[in-house]
Amino acid sequence: MPLMVFKVRDRSMEPGLREGDFIVVYTWGRKFRRGDIVVFPHPGTGMRMVKRVTRSGRDSCFVVGDNSRLSEDSRKFGDIRAGSIVGKVILHV
Which of 19, 21, 46, 88 has the least CB density, counted as fewest CB within 10 Å? Predict the structure, then answer.
């Protein structure tokens, strides 16, 4: 199925996405651009994370949370493999 629904579980993407919001993720696209919000597994724990792409290359993306004070992101764990990204957020409620 090309769409998945996730619940935002932290405050790292505030103010745009708040803890408790639901997001719809399009899972078929594999090209990510700067500004896209993506879901991917944390490189260490595998827990699903939601972050914004600030730099993308052919094989990797640098992702950060909009709320930098509360975000664990590429500034800590480095680039993520583009192939590990579950998909791109297309809607939130």
Answer: 46
Q: Which residue has the tokens 């004070």?
A: 69
The string of pLDDT tens digits covering residues 23-49 is: 999 998 778 999 999 999 999 999 999
**Where does the pLDDT of residue 1 fall: very low under 50, low under 70, confident under 90, or very high at 90 and above?**
low
pTM equals 0.93
Which of the four CATH numbers 1.10.287.110, 2.10.109.10, 2.30.30.60, 1.20.1290.10 does domain 3-92 have? 2.10.109.10
- The residues with which 40 forms a beta bridge, in sequence order, are 49
- Which residue in the block uniquely carries the two structure tokens 């990797």? 60
Are 6 and 73 spatial neighbours (Cβ–Cβ below 8 Å)?
Answer: no
